[in-house]
Amino acid sequence: MLKRSFLTALIWHFFCLIFFWNCSKKEISTPPETIITGELDFSQTIGGSKNDVLKSIIKTDDEGYAILGYTQSNDFDITTKEVENFDFWLLKHDVNNNLVWQQTFGGSMDDRGAKLITTSDGGFALLGYSKSADKDVTSNAGSQDFWMLKISSSGNLLWEKTFGFSGPDYGTTLIETEEGGFLVTGVLDVSASNGQGNAKFNKQKHAGGDFWALKLTAGGDLEWSKYYGGSFTDTPLGVVKTADNGFILVGSSDSNDVDINNNKGSYDFWVIKISSDGTLLWEKSFGGSEIDEARAICATHDGNFMVVGDTRSSDSDITMNNGGADVWALKISSEGNLIWEKTFGGTSFDVARSISMTQDHGFVIAGSSRSGDNDFTNQGQNDALVLKIDAEGALEWQETIGGSEIDFLYDAIELNDKTIIAVGESSSSDGDISLNKGFSDALILQIK
C-alpha cells in the first residue's frame, strides 16, 4: 500500500510539473510581430483660417513625436500667435497621438520652418528662413536669412541665430555633429553676397545660388562657412553624416561648371562629399536629359546611402519612366557610386520629398501623386503618397490619401511600434480628409 501511494504521488507530481511548465511557456511567449500593410489608420487636419503646413517629423524619447512647419493662421487650432503672418510652428505629440503642446516662433514678417532634429541634450534644433528682424529674430542681413533655433524639450526658445547676406538665403536642412555642434545647409545667393560665404582660403566667385554649408558650435557660433556649385541653381535638400566624420549633401543642380563636372542634362541629382572642415572631396551627378531633383538622403544598414527625389527622364541613369514624373530612389556607396536605382509612379506626376529607414532595413518614402493608374489611385488633384520599399528597393506597398483638392506629404517616419506617421498639408475637405478650416491645413496621417 505504501509503495502504491508513493507511486501515485510521484505520478501526480509529474503531471503538476508538466502543467505549470506549459502555463509558464504561455506566459512568456513572444507576442506576434506587428505587420504594417499600408492601411490608413487615421487622418487629421490641424490649423486655422489661413495656410498651415507641416514639413518635418522626428521621433521623441517618450515614444511620441514632434513636428515642425509654419503657420499663417492665428485662430482655431493656432493658440500661440496674434497676427496673420508666417511663423515657425512646432508641435509635440504623445504616443497616443495627442497634442501635448505647440509653440510658434518668429517676427513680424515671413518666417518658415523647414527641418527639425532632436539634439543630444534632449531638446530640438530648428532650421528654416526668416525675413524678420524683430520679436524672436534678433537680426537680418538682407531680404531673407537662414534662421536656426535651439529649443528645450518642453518647447522653450534657448537661442537663435541668423546667417546670410543681402540676398534671399534660406536654410533647408541640418544635422548634429559628433562634437555636439551642427552642420547647417541651404541656399546662398552668391551673386547678392558678392562671393561672401566662402572661407578665406577659397575666394572663387561665381553667380547663381549654391549649396551653402556652415559648421556651428553647440551654442550656434560659426566655425566655418563654404559654398559649392556652379553658375546656375544648386539647391541642397538633404544631409547625412559619414563614418569618417564628413558629410554627404544632396540636392539638385542645373550647373555644369565650377564644382560640377558631369551634368547629364537640365537639373540633376547632385551629390557631394565634404570633410569635417568643409573640403570638397568628391561630387557626382545622377540623372537623364530631363529634370531630376534629389530631395532627401538617409543611411542604410550596410554602410551605404539612399537618395530619393523625382525624375522626368527616361535615359542615362534612369532605366524606366512611367510617364510625367516618377519617384526615383537611388542606392549609392560611400564613394558615391551608383549601386541600383528604382522608379515608382503612374502616367502623371508622382514625386518624393523624404526617405527614412525602417526597423526591417527597408525605407518609407513620402510625397505626392497625381496618377490614377499603375496601381495608383487618385481622388482629385495631388493626393498624399506613402511608399514602403524593402532593403533592395522592391515595392512592398503604396498608399494614396486625399480628397478633391491638393494633398501633399513632406516627411514620414516609422515609430517604435512600426506604425508610420506622415505629415504635410491638405486643401481638401472630402474623401479621406474630413475637415478643412482654411486655405490649407496641416495634415497628419497614421499608416498601419
Task: Provide the fold topology.
Elements: H1 2-27, E1 40-46, E2 52-59, E3 65-71, E4 87-93, E5 99-105, E6 111-118, E7 124-130, E8 145-151, E9 157-163, E10 170-176, E11 182-189, H2 190-193, E12 209-216, E13 222-228, E14 234-241, E15 247-253, E16 268-274, E17 280-286, E18 292-299, E19 305-311, E20 326-332, E21 338-344, E22 350-357, E23 363-369, E24 383-389, E25 395-401, E26 407-414, E27 420-426, E28 441-447
Antiparallel strand pairs: 1-28, 2-3, 3-4, 4-5, 6-7, 7-8, 8-9, 10-11, 11-12, 12-13, 14-15, 15-16, 16-17, 18-19, 19-20, 20-21, 22-23, 23-24, 24-25, 26-27, 27-28
Keywords:
single chain; 448 residues; mainly beta; 7% helix
Poorly predicted runs are: 1-31
The description of the largest β-sheet is: 4 strands, antiparallel
Radius of gyration: 25 Å
Mean pLDDT: 92
Along the chain, the helix and strand elements come as HEEEEEEEEEEEHEEEEEEEEEEEEEEEEE
Task: Summarize the entry for a quick read.
With 448 residues, the chain is mainly β.
Task: Please describe what this structure looks like.
The chain has 448 residues and is mainly β. The chain has a domain at 50-176. It is 7% helix and 46% strand. The protein has 2 helices and 28 strands. A 4-stranded antiparallel beta sheet has the order 1-28-27-26, with no helix packed on it. A 4-stranded antiparallel beta sheet has the order 2-3-4-5, with no helix packed on it. Strand 16 (268-274) and strand 17 (280-286) form a beta hairpin. The longest helix has 26 residues, at 2-27. The radius of gyration is 25 Å and the shape is globular. The termini are far apart. 48% of the residues are buried.
